[in-house]
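FAQ: What does the model actually see?

It sees only this:
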Amino acid sequence: MKRKDFALRIAGSIFGLVSLLHLLRLITGASVVIADWPLPLFVNIFGFLAAAALCVWLWWLSLKKA
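And it is asked to produce this:
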């Protein structure tokens, strides 16, 4: 495996983990407060979609034949 492919897979895995954490907050409804400001739950919908899209894209790039 080339270094580039390995780096893409690591980054894709990190984005996958982040997307799962966004999904976990959506499922559990856990509250997040930043400096006395409660973070709305709908923010996690965008976070989940963006992180999942980046995860899929990076893994696709790492598996793509040159």
